[in-house]
Specification:
By secondary structure, the chain is an alpha+beta fold. It has two helices and five strands.
């Protein structure tokens, strides 16, 4: 007997695969990091190639070590794609 794409058994197997491998429990550290990420200020970082979504890091936040020592006119952002942390000119940051 050949399985077909709409076979209920196959669909149930796919659903269980999704539950097991996609929805995994997070640790307390993961939850704290996610919560800190959600409260950050969303901005667009303007660069030669266009725009990149980012969030401004403020003192006391993860990844913001030394942000209070940045020179005047600079701020620290964390890119949403890839998570890279950069020190950039404030004039290159546009609020969302």
């Amino acid at each position: 007997m050949a399985l077909q794409a709409y076979d209920p058994w196959l669909m149930e197997l796919g659903f269980h695969f999704l539950l097991l491998f996609y929805f995994q429990a997070k640790t307390d550290d993961d939850l704290a990091s996610d919560k800190a990420w959600m409260v950050l200020e969303r901005v667009w970082l303007v660069h030669r190639g266009g725009f990149a979504a980012a969030r401004v890091l403020h003192a006391g936040m993860p990844g913001a070590e030394g942000v209070e020592n940045l020179p005047e006119g600079k701020c620290r952002v964390k890119l949403e794609h890839g998570g890279e942390v950069l020190d950039v000119d404030e004039e290159d940051v546009e609020k969302v």
